[in-house]
Amino acid sequence: MKIILHIWRQRNCKDKGKMTRYEVPNVNQEMSFLEMLDVLNEDLILKNEEPVAFDHDCREGICGTCGCMVNGMAHGPLPGTTLCQLHMRHFKEGDELYLEPWRAAAFPVVKDLVVDRSAFDRIIAAGGYISVATGSAPDGNAVLVPKENAECSMDAAACIGCGACVAMCPNASAALFTGAKIAHLGLLPQGQPERDQRAIAMVAQARQELFGSCTNIGECEAVCPKEIKLEVIARMNGDFIRASLTGR
Amino acid sequence: MELNSNSPTGPIETRWERHRFNLKLVNPANKRKYNIIVVGSGLAGGSAAASLAELGYNVDCFCFQDSPRRAHSIAAQGGINAAKNYHNDGDSIYRLFYDTVKGGDFRARESNVHRLAGISLNIIDQCVAQGVPFAREYSGYLDNRSFGGAQVSRTFYARGQTGQQLLLGAYQALERQIGMGAVKMFPRTEMLDLIVVDGRARGIVTRNLITGTIESHFSDAVVLGTGGYGNVYYLSTNAKGCNATAIWRAHKRGALFANPCFTQIHPTCIPVSGEYQSKLTLMSESLRNDGRVWVPTTKRDKRVPSQIPEAERDYFLERKYPSFGNLVPRDVASRNAKAVCDEGRGVGESGLAVYLDFRDAIERLGASVIKERYGNLFDMYNRITGEDPYKEAMRIYPAMHYTMGGLWVDYNLMSNVPGLYVIGEANFSDHGANRLGASALMQGLADGYFVLPNTIGDYLASNKLEKVDSSHAAAREAESSVHAVTRKLLDAKGTRSVDSYHRELGKIMWEHCGMARNAEGLKQALALIPPLREQYWSDVKVLGAGEELNQSLEKAGRVADFFELAELMCRDALDRNESCGGHFREEYQTPEGEAARDDENFAYAAAWGFQGVGQPPVLHKEPLTFEYVHPSQRSYK
Ligand SMILES: Cc1cc2nc3c(=O)[nH]c(=O)nc-3n(C[C@H](O)[C@H](O)[C@H](O)COP(=O)(O)OP(=O)(O)OC[C@H]3O[C@@H](n4cnc5c(N)ncnc54)[C@H](O)[C@@H]3O)c2cc1C
Ligand code: FES
To answer: Is B14 among the domain residues?
Structure first.
């Protein structure tokens, strides 16, 4: 089948950028979305045109490297699916697709569909961890974790840090990402001692990185490829308020 | 060259403890005066960088992804082994040691493996404390499963995302140190050369992948945790960015490359669907616990699997290996799948697939139990193929998965180049000729959290290192050689893309140095690779400039290294006239068609020294002795 692509081309962070139209004539429905872009790029190279830069690595939906907006939807139309796991059988002959990078003040465009998400790392560095130096841990079974807590914690820990939540949020808020880490660690007994301090530090860092505030729109949950629930934001807010009130 | 493994002797149970006691220590107040470069932020590199910084060293850490959290370790699914014996089912450090030496087909160093098995206990403790949400039983205790045919339940897991959770634990520890200023992180920065001064590793040359700037970084020691080289084959289960550049360029600066031909093929991957295929997706090994592997008895049977009657199905693993059946080890399962496809009985469009069928399991246990066990895998299969494995058998085929070979290291994880340490999949150390399931995560974390932070201090405390900076001739030479390679790739301005060459190289390797090898095929590969490599250098087409984000240029450099490494792999495979583990030489098999080892002549690690591109490398042998686990023939009949 033939797919028509309009892709955001931008040489570097200083360039203004614009949409460019491409046709990919021989798309096989078994291809993944990124394989379609590979085919386009091979074609461009042979025509002496620079290939489209896009980020990707595992192509298994787990590393969180890939992602762009496809017709206004982060990671494209299929729920719970990263761009690399989206296959072309979900499209049809002649479809026109508009591909744009994540748009957020905190995610400057590097080139074409590639953005800089290092703000996420800095949010984690601010407090998204449990402070335990190597070698000082007690036996693994010394701390019991109720199965349900472990499961809920794992639900939140499944976040791949792709940034789709930010890209889809009208406020470009990082609440789902930040909340997911706060919930993952806060649901475990090991995470309790630093819980207050963690919430304060991570929320402050997110603000400093120019992410917007959460106004409970829920677009983030709708596009999250790992189906992280809005509940994590409620947990974050709860932890943050409690920590602020107790002044810890 | 005399290869000294620095392995301790005496009772194996206390070797590591005694060795550690004999290592020199760096005075705590002095640690901050030392600079250590860690290349890689996967389980090995990430855990090492964090732990070294906790000890007080100054650490610079590098990765090519945009964040250290995205290293390929993130993709590991199944789990991590540890001899905790929480189930009282007879597991012990000694049993894990024994299983690993035997599983590696007697081509690993006993001292290393025993240390690994011992440290496995500490790893789980550390990860739990970090908040890794391991699966739990209703009581709140840690849950385990048996994995990859092991007879005890020693695999810890976090759903099907164990690698992700372990890596996030290491990444968070690393970010904590970054936040405190103890580690300086360089994401999107690729190591392109090693700086060797007076025979010692003293720094690296990198390219900033955003700006294209090439620069040198200096240190008192360099640690490589840069992962495996499975992407030589183009199609593999590895992430697209996985590459051999760091270890290969270190090899060209003198580090020996050990057992390059020891590669592991994973039997249960989703088959190739077309020429555009960019990578292969692994389906967890656990599927073989309930799925039955078969092909039709007749060639090119195009019926849908559910329409093929029982009498016309050949459950070839159950037929050939009645006691292990579908649970034979990875290499055996893979080779048998290939054999039936070679006979023309493969299924699917390409004929390069076999069925993995859950019909009987669903009948016996009900679809809901199967869903509970494998739901996420079935969904993944459905997402990729558009087919429903609850209704029709899955199609699977083996794919390149893991590389046991890597840079040679001694017991301290130091290569033969003083000051150059190699950890994780990048080294050759613990898995011999075949790695057991759930043991790579264990090794990466053992190296990074517990071994290297102990051993590196001995080197630093024992050697007085002069200061070096970019004015040093060795640094200038390394930098200019990186510039030269970059220019050469950009200036070739040829006719074919990097990927098209990589694909061609991958096909040669899969065909001749893949699941089964023979002298004739390997010689053929050795005749095909050099001219293709030459052609690559003159005909590759890399557009754009060096001073910007240029993904084609990144790939071009990596593929250039794959060409040279591929040749070494074939030479090593040709030189090893025996079959062992993942290295199956068709000429050397038992009458039943199983791998026939030759312990008399090949009980050694083959460590190759670089002599120049296209020049025959020199072979150094590290003899392997087995004092505890006595070599025997594996049998799964
Ligand atoms: C699909 C899949 C499933 C697996 N499942 C399991 C499992 O269940 N259990 C198990 O035990 N093992 C499993 N494995 C194997 C295991 O995941 C790997 O062997 C292990 O994670 C490797 O870790 P590492 O730290 O050595 O390397 P990696 O995680 O690959 O990290 C390499 C690091 O080096 C960096 N790097 C590489 N080259 C350069 C360079 N030139 N310059 C700068 N940085 C560089 C990268 O950016 C990255 O940070 C699986 C592997 C695959 C492919
Ligand atoms: S490439 Fe890893 S999630 Fe898509």
So the answer is: no
**Is the four-CA dihedral B428, B429, B434, B440 of positive or negative sign?**
negative
Predicted TM-score (pTM) of this structure: 0.98
Whether residue B573 contacts residue B513, with contact meaning beta carbons closer than 8 Å, is answered with yes
Question: What b-and-e string marks burial along B229-242, b requiring 16 or more CB atoms within 10 Å of the CB?
Answer: bbbbbbbbbbbbbb
**Contact A135/B165, CB-based, under 8 Å?**
no
List chain A residues with CB under 8 Å of B544.
50
Residue A18: how many other CB atoms lie within 10 Å = 10
Q: Is the pLDDT of residue B212 over 70?
A: yes
User: Domain boundary at A88, A110, A132, which?
Assistant: A110
Of A9, A25, A18, which is closest to residue A112 (Cα–Cα)?
A9
pLDDT at res. A248: 56
B449 reaches A (C-beta below 8 A): yes
Reply yes or no on whether the pLDDT at A6 is more than 70. yes
Condensed to tens digits (0 to 9), the pLDDT of residues A110-132 reads 999 999 999 999 999 999 999 99
Mutate to test the interface with B, among A42, A57, A226, A228 (most CBs of B within 10 A): A57
Kindly state whether B252 is in contact with chain A, defined as any CB-CB distance less than 8 angstroms: no
> Number of Cβ pairs closer than 8 Å across A and B?
215
Print the domain residue range for A205: 117-246
Indicate if A101 and A169 belong to the same structural domain: no
For residue B221, the CA-to-ligand 1 centroid distance in Å is: 22
> In B, residues 386-415, which contact A (CB 8 Å cutoff)?
386
Ligand 2 touching residue A65 (CB < 6 A): yes
Which range of residues forms the domain containing residue B306?
Answer: 265-396
State the ipTM, two decimals.
Answer: 0.98
Tell me if B384 and A87 make a contact (CB, 8 A cut-off).
yes
Q: Does B613 touch chain A (CB under 8 A)?
A: no
For residue B146, the model assigns a pLDDT of 84
Whether A41 and A100 share a structural domain = yes
- Res B545 pLDDT > 70: yes
User: Which runs of E-coded beta strand occur in B363-469?
Assistant: 394-403, 406-407, 420-422
B157 near B142, Cβ under 8 Å?
Answer: no
Residues of A in contact with B137 (CB under 8 A): 147
Find out whether B237 and B230 touch, Cβ atoms under 8 Å.
yes
Residues 6+ apart with CB under 8 A from B40: B46, B61, B62, B63, B71, B223, B224, B225, B226, B227, B246, B424, B426
Cα–Cα distance between A54 and A57 in angstroms, integer?
10
Q: Are strands B200-208 and B604-609 parallel, antiparallel or unpaired?
A: unpaired
- Confidence band for B285, pLDDT divided at 50, 70 and 90: confident
Question: For B572-620, what is each residue's pLDDT tens digit?
Answer: 999 999 999 999 999 999 988 888 999 999 999 999 999 999 999 999 9
Number of domains forming the structure of chain B: 2
Instruction: Please give the distance, rounded to the nearest whole angstrom, from the Cα atom of residue A85 to the centre of ligand 2.
Output: 8
Choose the closest CB to A147 out of B136, B278, B450. Answer: B136
**Domain stop point among B372, B396, B420:** B396
Q: Where a domain ends, among B396, B422, B454?
A: B396
Ligand 1: centre distance to CA A13 (Å): 31
CB within 8 Å of B620: residues ≥ 6 apart: B1, B3, B256, B606, B607, B608, B609
Using CB distances shorter than 6 Å, the residues near ligand 1 are B 39-45, 62-65, 71-73, 75-80, 162-163, 190-191, 225-228, 237-238, 242-243, 245-246, 282, 401-402, 424-426, 438-441, 444
Contact B130, A142 (CB under 8 A): no
